[in-house]
Amino acid sequence: MLRRHFSIIVIASLISHIGFAAKKLDKTASGAPPSELPRIAFFNPSSVGNTFWPQVFLSMEEAAKDLGFIFLHYDLGFEDRMATEERIREVLNSNLKVDAIMASTTINSARRILASPQTKSSTIIFEGPLFPSELKTLTQDAKNVHPNWLGFFEQNEQEKGYQLAQLLIERARHKKAIGKDGRIHVLGIGGAKKWYGSHLRELGLKKAIEESKDAVLNQIVSADWSTERSRTLSGKLLERFPETSVIWAASDQMALGVVEALVASGRKLGESGFTGGLDFSEVGLKEVKKGTFEATVGSPAYFYTKVAIFLYDYVTHAYPTGKNPPDLTAEVFVATKENASDLLLSRQVIAELDLREFSLKYHPELKEYDFSWAKILQTVCRGTMFRSDEVKALCVKKR
């Protein structure tokens, strides 16, 4: 099954997207003019200053360039839960043919998107997770009613929250950053409640607390993905709970605000104050490398490249008719100071690839979509010519 979450503000005009694809066709085997290329559109809710989504869009542009399709992305704010479905209707009503739609949704919007007459001629895949109540209504008979719906792609949000919390608690334990009661005091800075993934991330935090007999969770508050709000709330919570040494943040963007609050409170990062985020963004990885974050946990942006390759194969009829979609659940990575430098190269590593090697359209003999980090490195490091000296050095080290 496929899964995960999305939003919209047009980063560039449709004309510029089409022009980008046209100029990059030298690497594709199709030779088709831009007007005949498949179009894949991604609708996702984001926030101002988001640290994750820009690198996702760059990864998908790489897939569009190599395979030969036009990638359109619409970055919506998350405040209006109707924005995704309304924008999809707007785009499709403009008579622009869209072959495949990737959409992150808020409460109950997935059902309305599928039911919309405008989406009937487009293949649709949603980023999970959905709220259980909506998921139940979709999975009962939705595949028969909506044959153009492929399912979900997603990251394991609970596991991400759990692994970050475990690591932060262990770091505080190692440094003996405990309260007078002998326990490690933890705070949580959560994301937007309109997305079910926020709830799952917090469940991961709570699970880690339950398993750690020497840790206590004093409070979780929502900062709605905002760095500024996270900084303000963290400062107030540190005054309310002065024995706190760990602040878990549900995104890298919010963890930046936590760092500022911890430093302002007089705590020394990595000694008496510990934080990290969920996203696995380049910003987060750089903070880990500097030592301000203990970790960033998540799935790399290139996971979305895998989804794009599958959708391209599907809409070009290279994917076998009647076959269930592949598993589109992302790998979860924990980036610490020990591996952050290597993982920061992931976008440069992807840029070294000819992504046609992973596509059934160009390689029908492929048995599966193996787009794991191990497979990617193996493929890149087979070569002897590299555009990036850093990637070359990484391959030499791996050999």
Taking all Cα atoms into account, the compactness measure Rg is: 22 Å
CATH homologous superfamily caption of the largest domain: Response regulator
At CATH level 2, the architecture of the largest domain is 3-Layer(aba) Sandwich
Structural class: alpha/beta
Number of domains: 2
Q: If you average the pLDDT, what whole number results?
A: 87
What's the shape? globular
Number of helices: 15
What is the ordering of alpha helices and beta strands? HEHEHEHEHEHEHEHEHEHEHEHHHH
Helix content: 40-55%
Give a structural overview.
The protein is α/β, with parallel strands linked by helices and 399 residues long. It folds into two domains: 14-155 and 300-332, Response regulator (Rossmann fold, 3-Layer(aba) Sandwich); 157-298, Rossmann fold (3-Layer(aba) Sandwich). It has helices at residues 14-23, 53-67, 83-93, 109-115, 132-145, 157-174, 196-211, 227-240, 252-264, 282-290, 302-315, 340-343, 346-352, 373-381, 389-398; strands at 39-46, 70-77, 100-104, 123-127, 149-153, 184-190, 215-222, 244-249, 274-278, 296-298, 333-335. The strands form two sheets. A six-stranded mixed β-sheet has the order 7-6-8-9-10-11, with helices on both faces. Strand 1 (39-46), helix 2 and strand 2 (70-77) form a beta-alpha-beta unit. Helix 3 runs parallel beside helix 4. The model is unreliable at 1-29 (pLDDT under 50).
